Amino acid sequence: MTATRPRPAAVLSRRNREALKSAVWHVVALLVLFVLLYPLFWLLGASFTPGHDIVGRNAVIPESWTLDNYRSALDGIGRVPAWVFFRNSIVISGLSVVGVLVSCSLAAYAFARLRFPGRTLMFVLMLSTLLLPFHVILIPQYIIFNRLGLVDTYVPLLLGKFLAAEAFFVFLMVQFLRGLPRELDEAARIDGAGHFRIFASVLLPLMKPALVTSAIFTFIWSWNDFLPQLVYLQSFEKFPVPLALRLFVDAERASDFGGMIAMSLLSLIPVGLFFLAFQRLIVQGMATAGLKG
Amino acid sequence: MTNGTAVARAKERQTAPARKAGAAAARKPRKAGLGRGGAEANQWRPGYLFLSPWILGMAFLTIGPMLISLWLSFTDADMFTFVTPGGPDWIGLDNYTRMVQDPIFLQSVKVTLTYVVIMVPLELVVALAVAMLLSQGRRGMGFYRSAFYAPSLIGASVGMAIVWRALFSSDGVVDSTLSVFGIHTGGWIGNPSVAVGMLILLGVWQFGAPMVIFLAGLTQVPKELLEAAEVDGAGAWRRFTHVSLPLITPVIFFNLVLETIRAFQVFTAAFIISNGNGGPARSTLFYTLHLYHRAFEDLRMGYASAMAWLLVIVVGLITMLLFRTARGWVHYQGDQR
Lengths: 293, 337
Prior knowledge:
The complex is a heterodimer. By secondary structure, chain A is an all-alpha fold.
């Protein structure tokens, strides 16, 4: 044993080499990270730079600071102040979260815990909608909602969320439920609980991690969603943030470039906050969803 | 996926007798009429009850609309034919034949295929490379993982597309950086030969999602295998190509399928960056953007439905093709799946 133990000097140099390797690794990783996140740093700096100076500036830190961009962004567009757009986005995203949590967890309980004819077929059907291009249902849905007089309301944007059309989250919750021991259901059943009691009082509380992950992703995705909003919404005062931003792009020739940049930054802030608060959950949710696929 | 359900069914088959035995051991008298316990045949009622929102959604928001759009694709429907009593006229395969003769349509196919064929492999290679870098288990791994993932959450948003537009405009950041190296593009936005490139870069920028999945796959590669290979004298590169890479092929396959399908449907960035028209010179006229124009600007619902169905068929065929080839190169470890 003692014969094979390396001499102290060798230990030291090996430790040094290891430290050097580690330092190089961190430098490389941080450099890559800086390049990757540069657009965000640039955006932050540009939002405080006077509008006419923004394009053509590479530096992150502005030479002269101004809050005019934010003032102009908060003034809104088309006589609608910016807070209305944010309120609309919060309403749409908030209701989406409620809809997804309720409808997808109900569906997941049926798929994961109950046995009934056609279950496997329906499960496969549900999974295959994950691969379905959205455009093929958008056109007929638009025609239907148009005939029902529901265009320019939030109903077309939200109905799918309340009817468990978000297969990804059903799948996520089914996977999670399958990991929970069935003895729990059994115990509750022996105590005389019905399916709804088992679902609501036993399993739902245990599903919290899956529910939180679903809620976060639903919020972020519906916050960023663009095509359905673009198709269905017409009046400015009903616009969520992405559509408002699009108006800024249209009005760009009117040269409110600074306002557009500041509004872009503001539009990313809710997602950024969610990310900072829940980053571990978000990243893990993504990883496990992928691995179990 | 079918394998997954098969496994689940097998598990249920295992637990079903055990459950019955447990119920019998408890010797609790069953409540009359409710038929709980092991009576699985009776679960159809709660089953359909719990699934009822999903069934409604499936019928009225997915399958119904799909059938309507299939029918529309064989008609000359526009937004107004629905108001007239006769409804749209059946024109057979006309939409489809007209489509393939339309140079604008063909251009949109070209743009989308260029995007998919370049963006997806590039994104996956970057994702795998960064995942390898991070899988070495250095300090701060959690921080790096989150930071590299962040662009995935915002990359598809309108806000980010606007930033991209500014970065790649003439005398924007990218242009002035490149001109230091003597490359003058005159702004990517106005230049038809590179405009799609900036959308490809925006797609690759969002490599975080596949990276996180790669990383999860890499951490499941058994340490003993890597150590055994090292003892046998395999260098880092050989350990990667001969041990890690074969073991994560299922994850590579999953990412490949998912990112390909996603890439075919990219819309927001192309719409914002070209200000809705797919320019310059239709160089960013993505398939989905062209479809949007036909449906919601020209209001040619029949033609646009035919385009949508062609997209479904092509994406379906490519997915099938990928699954077919998967048998040759994807290795599933014995008991997984």
